[in-house]
Amino acid sequence: MTDDIRELDQFLDDAYDAQERLTSGDLQRRAIAADLPPALLTRVDALPEGEYAQDEAAEALRTLG
After folding, report:
1. Which one of 18, 22, 33, 34 is at 20 to 30 Å from 43 when CA atoms are compared?
2. Distance between CA atoms of 26 and 28, rounded to whole angstroms?
């Protein structure tokens, strides 16, 4: 597993703490607050609008890489 994937997984674990679904906007705001590296912020920003469960967000972010 690459460092980017590991860091994205950790970010998602933190972001989804006690949350079932988050919007792409919620994830973008949390990514900025988490001070993710620019390359990972670009991936989160590229998520299509909508609501995501954690596994859906992880899969979408991996395909955007």
Report:
1. 18
2. 5
